Amino acid sequence: FSGSFGEVYQTFHLSIYMSSNNKFSISPEMATQEVQPNETLSNLKAESDTLKTKLEDERAKLHDVELHQVAEKVDGLGQFIMKTRRTLKGHGNKVLCMDWCKDKRRIVSSSQDGKVIVWDAFTTNKEHAVTMPCTWVMACAYAPSGCAVACGGLDNKCSVYPLSLDKNENLAAKKKSVAMHTNYLSACSFTNSDMQILTSSGDGTCALWDVESGQLLQSFHGHAADVLCLDLAPSETGNTFISGGCDKKANVWDMRSGQCIQSFETHESDINSVRYYPSGDAFASGSDDATCRLYDLRADREVAIYSKESIIFGASSVDFSLSGRLLFGGYNDYTINVWDVLKGTRVSILFGHENRVSALRVSPDGTAFCSGSWDHTLRVWA
Amino acid sequence: MTISTLTRGGAQREQQHCLRKMERVIIAMQDPDIGLKMRNQRLLITVIPHAMTGNDIMEWLIQKYNITDEEAGHLGGLLVQYGYIYPLKEPRSLILRSDDSPYRFQTPYFWTSSRWPASELDYAIYLAKKNIRKQGELVDYEKQNYNLLHKRINHTWDFVVMQAREQIRASKQRRKADRIVLECQEQAYWLVNKPCPGAFDVFDLGPERCNVLNSRVILNSSLLFFLLRISSVPNNSLSSHFLLSLSCVCSFMKFCDQYHQHDPIMSGCLPSNPWISDDTTHWTINTDLVGTPTRLRVERWSFSFMELLNDCLGRREFMTYLEKEFSGENLCFWEACEDLRHGESSKIILKVEEVYKTFLSPGAARWVNIDSKTMERTLEGIKQPHRFVMDDAQMHIYFLMKKDSYPRYLKSDLYKNMLSKAIVPQETKKSVFPFMRRQRHSSPSPAMVSQATEDNGKAKGAGPAATNSGTLS
Fold first, then answer.
1. pLDDT in tens, A135-193
2. Is residue B256 helix, strand or coil?
3. Residue A185: beta bridge partners?
4. ipTM score for this prediction
5. pTM tops 0.80, yes or no
6. Smallest Cα distance from A83 to chain B, Å
7. Which residues in chain A have their CB less than 8 angstroms from residue B465's CB?
8. Which 312-341 residues of chain B touch chain A by CB within 8 A?
9. N or C: which end of chain A has fewer CB within 10 A?
């Protein structure tokens, strides 16, 4: 079957039949008809819950190994020292989001006061600045070519600004409005080229847009509440992405069909950040429940939890080091915790920011990572 | 005074989670068996009961959570910032001092989680009390707030003043120690709930979240989703699932191990990490189309086909190899399909035509060898072109290259020569005068470089910023 769910109420008649080799198969037939009086919301919810429990029971019967058990034989990591090497000052208010340019040294960052700044983080020089017409610019992204940036927030839109080097030109003049949501924009990312943007929103959906025309190419429905983050897969076929939301779910989507192909619900609170493991076979999530978790896409389950009793505040942003051995998490208690992905232990805790860490990304060549904070600064650590 | 929970939005809901956890820590700290040892603390001439020193707090946290001084100081500091512990000396400064400064636990009545939002009336009474007790005790922002409230709730001002006087009178009848404690508690509460402008605000939470959506639609989709998942759970051997699980987990270890040397944060990078040494040589020798690549870079091409294709230089080398084997059209076709998939919607029809003419039509200049079934499907699909119409064919060619050409390339002389020519930079010795900072050179912005190439009529778009001469430094 095909099609998005949108606002059309549809009831599914699912006929489950056994095929010759005793495997269950499903053939759904969609019937758009009057909703049966006994198919109340609570009935549907009860049915959904029963199936969910059944699925978990089936899974529990299968013996699964924990990552840290197998990783016992792996060498531990030695002393770990990372320091702030650059501090980028210039935002007048909370920094909410940041992204690296493919040239490995430039950064775009956005803040609560509507300012979007492009920096050469190496020299700490500001190269461009745009003032958005809205406050709380919660999402920003650098185009793969390095020639444009995308950003958005409480304006419910995602706009693309081509970066002009003419000092006299006002960047806002060439602004292009691409995405339109019905609630705030929480995250955005260019796909493999400057021509397409993927967005996630407080309206519970993700969407893929054509930059040139502003046309909606695909929408993704399935989250029950605000979608807070997304990440594109580095896989060979490059057709999937993950999203995390306030419904505690992390979903894997097929970009072409708009279908949710996998879903994980083990967090106890909002998922603020999702990031693929470098091989594309797994992903990490950071949540308000103060844990980060690793999910294996082929085994279809959670394989590790990164938490500590002394960590009380939520993780707002996570990213892997180049080899995937380290997971960096920026937290709402102003710290950055560094986790050994394989062993599940914390390698280090980094202090420095004076308010919550809201954004964290490792640079494209893995030489450093950058953290953005509500203390108005960004720091590059190496 | 109980505050209704209905007024709380999504962000407050998230904060409740944290506050509850902090409260659990606080309760554990006050546990008669495993908690802190509280005793009387001397504050000038008064003895305050049930107090502890900053040092006590630090020690307890270090012991309980097995953390360092720095982390304990940080965690303790948060407990003070959020109003669960307050200082007796210098009460306006909500920080944790790791010495013998006295602190007390805030009474649950005043806990941040239970009394939000603070009522205007209560605040007015508090400020009035302070004002009456000692002239000039209100600081600037408190004076401003006081005046604002006076205007806003002027109609009940008599009540406010009356309450304030009554509370002052009642407190005079208490023992001095109790009076001090009650005053400190109340002051701490208001410092957290009505902070000085510019100071940390516990209730500064960001935009509202958690707009719960139409449940029916979501439930329908999750119902279907669960049924599909159940049908895919292997109901044959348990052992095959275990093996899958084990192999998945082992693959992470393998990947981490393979990339260990390539991870600058884990293994450093040669000659040095630019962020640490201020020397950009590492970037210069790794530019997209550099003359002689580094050894690590060439080695990485052997890790996976994707690694080879993702590197401009690697891809160019591979193209050279394919052309020697007269199969260069495969890579060209793949690139054209990528361009179609990720390009502008408006150019789709044009690009599909081009691809057909160049690669698929009978007698095409660069005809690609796809199996007949896929070819049939693709030609059928071309009649109604869309951006994914070449997906099947592209996949077929991709896997052909991956399974056949790629392994042979890795064994070829072309690759082996590349590997032997590749440079291994010398590690930079730490400079003799480490405090002398190098000058940090800027680099041309990709936007500028691209503007130049655009002027030359070249298109920009898919893939990393490709430059003709490499980035200068």
1. 999 999 999 999 999 999 999 999 999 998 776 677 788 899 999 999 999 999 999 89
2. helix
3. A201
4. 0.87
5. yes
6. 9
7. 102-103, 144-147
8. 338, 341
9. N
